[in-house]
Amino acid sequence: MQKYSRGLILSAMALGLAACGDSGVRVTRDKPADQVAMAPRSEPVFYNGKTYRLDFSPKGPNQFEMAVSGMGPAQQKDAVAVATSALGYFACPEGQKGKLLANPTYAGGKWRMQAKCG
What we know:
single chain; alpha+beta; 2 helices; 33% strand
């Protein structure tokens, strides 16, 4: 009986280790690839029950020109939240968030700002 118990324990351990083999964690010694050049794009963004339009385009290494349409002049905080969150989702490398480079401005019915990943 003891032989079977050891075999069962070893089999269970091997099965457990095999199940952990594909954990989704990437291990590499290579440096991360440079950010791929991207074309300007527009995306609908759903925020607080409404859909807004986000336009963004690269303006240098790791920098983006952004505009949020559909918000009023009193919604600066919301426009910043939409822009930085969406930039992190659409353009930044995994784990990085969008950050403003300067205060946003409201003109022509759009909140305009510059942001970067990091």
